[in-house]
Design a protein that fits this description.
Number of domains: 2
Distance between the termini: 36 Å
Largest sheet: 2 strands, antiparallel
Structural class: mainly alpha
Strand content: under 5%
Radius of gyration: 19 Å
Length: about 280
């Protein structure tokens, strides 16, 4: 998407502040990272609910944000099995509470679906960032940070390559109804950049992490991240188009909202965690 020089300056300014803060918290891990991810999840869930409520769909932003926070905090403190059980129970309690308490004119069915789904879509998925960090160790350090940053870095790389290649030579629309500016040329370039980026990332961080995945497994991870990241991007674009908005909010100057910035990783984190949990780092 073409932006003015002013918009580009805002994007760069936010990135210069946000990226070092995020990387520092990833390095620290523990409750520092959990608190940061909780705030991101709450903001994203709030944006999701507000965006839909503004389009006429009932939603409860405080419920969505609070439930998203609960999902992340549960992920920070429980084993995977206990986490999944706890998420199920908490979700059912919230669904029952909203459905029973909400007035008929509030359209309880739509209220429940939008609010609870918004929390699952944001908080339950971002909770897997904490689980990924733990695959490299829970103490402050570069090993855990490097494991978590693997899917993040290659997602960013693929997205950047897809943008510039699509802008330069893109001719065939990938999803014209959802996101007309995305092209097959950009998507294919981003796919190969993401897959190859996994190999490059591991080669550059081998002194930090005792990686055991083979080259083929790393290419598989990169390919999977490319596909699910693109899906996450398109899903969020579909939600915005349905709500008739360009950005989920104006929270981040030049970037839109938290939902806009994290659209791909909502899908990437759970899939990357499952892949790495099975194969090991």
């Amino acid at each position: 998407m073409t932006r003015s020089g002013g918009e580009l300056g805002k994007r760069v300014g936010v990135a210069l502040i946000g990226i070092p803060v995020a990387v520092g918290l990833v390095f620290l891990g523990g409750y520092w990272l959990a608190g940061f991810v909780t705030l991101l999840a709450m903001a994203a869930a709030w944006e999701f609910a507000v965006m839909h409520r503004a389009s006429g769909v009932p939603a409860a932003p405080p419920v969505a944000a609070g439930l998203a926070a609960a999902y992340v905090l549960l992920a920070a403190n429980l084993s995977l099995e206990t986490y999944l059980v706890s998420v199920t129970l908490v979700t059912l309690v919230v669904i029952a509470s909203l459905a029973i308490v909400a007035a008929a004119e509030a359209r309880p069915g739509a209220l429940v679906m939008t609010s609870v789904f918004g929390a699952l879509y944001t908080g339950a998925t971002l909770g897997f960032a904490l689980r990924l960090r733990a695959e490299g160790g829970t103490a402050p350090g570069l090993a855990g940070a490097a494991v978590l940053m693997l899917p993040v870095a290659i997602t960013w790389l693929g997205d950047t390559v897809a943008y510039f290649v699509g802008k330069a030579i893109g001719r065939h629309e990938l999803a014209p109804v959802i996101s007309p500016k995305k092209t097959w040329e950009g998507a294919i370039a981003g796919f190969f950049a993401t897959a190859g980026g996994a190999l490059l990332y591991v080669a550059l961080t081998r002194s930090l992490v005792p990686w055991t995945m083979s080259a083929g497994e790393l290419l598989g991870l990169g390919a999977m991240v490319a596909v699910v990241g693109q899906a996450g991007d398109l899903v969020e674009s579909r939600f915005k188009r349905e709500c008739g908005v360009k950005d989920s909010s104006g929270l981040l100057p030049g970037h839109g909202g938290i939902l806009d910035r994290l659209d791909a990783v909502f899908f990437v984190f759970p899939f990357a965690y499952a892949y790495i949990a099975v194969l090991g780092v």
